[in-house]
Amino acid sequence: MNFFKDVFLSLLCLLGSNALPYDNEYGPDYGNEWIMFIDDKGMNHTMDFSTLPTDDRGIMFGDAYFYLYTRQNNESEILNIPDDDSPIISKNFNSSNELKVIAHGWYSGSNAEWVQNFKDIILRTEDANVIIVDWSELADNPIYPWSACSTRYVGKRTAKLLDKFSQANQLNYVHLIGHSLGAHVMGYTGMFTNVTVDRITGLDPARPLFEIPRIGPNFRLDKSDAKFVDIIHTCGGIYGYKRSHGHADFYPNDGKPKQPGCEGVQQVIGKTLNNEFLRSIT
């Protein structure tokens, strides 16, 4: 029931908003009525968010899953959220190290190459606790608005994970990192958790249904979600945020799509993580 409550609360806010004017080479409706998207696997998709489903048919149900990685465990440790008031006990978590949480975006998952590479880069760079949020059961929905609205539910679940985790573990420094819709998952996490979130890094936070139509900061990633929010724009005005919504916003090559040497989201993220911004993210 909480899932449907969160979905329909988000839908009401989205439907009650006014779309921003947006001109593009594909026509005046591009960005407001539809948009093209290349997922992590290089597959082409068309998002049509001009209309929303009128019934339950076609909705793909699912949940979020959490996997902990450290330098001490090569295989992931599955973190389950207790249904009662019990805390989460981990055999691998080191409370003296920073905690970094990574969330993927639409049509992606925890096994995406960039997610695994990013986790490996972090652990090579520092002795940290890394949690990967896998919400692919909800993100792999061809109806983009449902995946977009699911970010609120996943953010709440991640917030509950942090709250439960903090009952038995001291959280030294919490850094949330998300790409596309995953950036909004991290925004909701920061908004709902009782844990102090020190930093959120948004990698091209999704624009459709978050910046267009215009909605309030409680329904998208913004600088109120953590002590410090930094956003990297590499597809501004198309898939990602065009405006500045963080404490610090970075626009490599003017933040526009078709970044030099990159083809598709996989290479854009990979190049971002392997250049000077890696120092900022980690």
UniProtKB/TrEMBL annotation:
BP GO terms, sorted: lipid catabolic process
Molecular function terms, GO-annotated: lipase activity; serine hydrolase activity
Protein family per UniProt: Belongs to the AB hydrolase superfamily. Lipase family.
Domain Lipase: start-end pairs: 54-266
Annotated signal sequence range: 1-19
Transmembrane intervals: none
Natural source organism: Manduca sexta (Tobacco hawkmoth)
Keywords recorded for this protein, A-Z: Signal
GO CC, one annotated term: extracellular space
Source organism superkingdom: Eukaryota
Protein name per the record: Lipase domain-containing protein
